[in-house]
Write a structure and sequence with these properties.
It comes from Lacrimispora amygdalina. This protein is 69% helix and 0% strand. By secondary structure, the protein is an all-alpha fold. The chain has a domain of 80 residues.
């Protein structure tokens, strides 16, 4: 009887598009071919085929790396962005700051107190003015 292993975590399964490759792999391999093959044909006549092949492989390797490398579900550009943010993008010292909810409540209490004092002054001044009008 045939035995087929089924992964337990189906989130890690990538959708294959063509030739059992993902879209990312197809795009990267196509770019590698578009960039690498002209370099081979241009250099083949002047420096020889072995050096032209080495130059083509050197130019194509980064594309293969981008297509195939993945660590903990993260692609190389995600890893590079995270490394940049750690080194340059964020400040070195990040002090721990908390927001004190009681401070906001105290500010609100003081504002309410000030408003009630203003209202009391206006009502007292208004009642005096009304009394003077009546007489």
């Amino acid at each position: 009887m045939a035995y087929v292993s089924v992964p337990k975590d189906l989130n890690a399964v990538k959708t294959k598009v063509m030739f059992n490759l993902t879209k990312r792999q197809l795009v990267c391999f196509s770019l590698a071919g578009v960039v690498g093959l002209p370099i081979f044909f241009i250099l083949k006549g002047s420096v020889g085929s072995s050096i032209a092949v080495l130059a083509m492989m050197t130019v194509m390797l980064p594309f293969f790396f981008l297509a195939m490398y993945e660590k903990h579900g993260q692609t190389p550009e995600v890893i590079l962005r995270q490394m940049y943010m750690v080194k340059k993008g964020r400040p070195k010292e990040r002090p721990y700051k908390t927001q004190n909810a009681y401070e906001y409540l105290e500010k609100q209490y003081n504002l309410n107190k000030e408003v009630t004092q203003i209202v009391k002054r206006h009502t007292q001044a208004g009642s005096k003015a009304h009394k003077s009008r009546k007489s």
